Amino acid sequence: MVPTNKAFFVDDGPLWCLAILSSRLHLTWIAAICGRLRSDYSYSNTLGWNTFPIPTLTEKNKADLTRCAEDILLAREAHFPATIAELYDPETMPANLRAAHEKNDETLERIYIGRRFKHDTERLEKLFELYTKMVALPSPKGRGAGGEGAGDRGGCGPRRNAEQSAP
């Protein structure tokens, strides 16, 4: 496989980052912000990740999300050599993988509002509320996006494949 400038990766990021990137909450944001190319999402680290509001995470939050990410990875590994496409087919998704994602979503959503969201509209309402607060205040470094929801991303976040990003 030869990566293109559409390839993103997280190099050496904390495992809890996978929990956020794998969540329904993040996918709902991406669907609203990044758009689609045919039936696929067109992910952008600048539009999708950098604007995604993350509350300040406690060490317990990070530990809980790390455990969720581990459970997702272990569930995937249990079905080796199945491909990602096979694992995530809505009709045949393994029960343990579905359960791991449900637990991940519940854990993250409780961090945001103390309970599960009722639907995607409620997810987006909360995310846009946090985004508005996030961009309203200057960052401690004076570069914007320092309000509530900016969170400490702790080295977490997708980056573009640098070798392919030049025109």
Percent helix range: 40-55%
Number of separate domains:
1
Radius of gyration: 16 Å
Largest sheet: 2 strands, antiparallel
Number of strands: 4
Q: Helical segment tally?
A: 7
**Mean of pLDDT:** 84
Oligomer class: single chain
The helix/strand class is mainly alpha
- What share of residues are in beta strands? under 5%
Q: How far is the first residue's CA from the last residue's CA?
A: 20 Å
Task: Give the strand order of the largest sheet, numbering strands 1, 2, ... along the chain.
Answer: 1-4
What's a concise summary of this model?
By secondary structure, the protein is mainly alpha-helical.
Explain the overall architecture.
By secondary structure, the protein is mainly alpha-helical. It has seven helices and four strands. The strands form two sheets. Strands 1-4 form a two-stranded antiparallel sheet. Strands 2-3 form a two-stranded antiparallel sheet. Helix 2 packs across helix 7 (120-136) and helix 4 (59-77) runs antiparallel to helix 6 (95-113). The protein starts with 7 loop residues before the first strand and ends in a 7-residue tail after the last strand. The model is unreliable at 142-146 and 162-167 (pLDDT under 50).
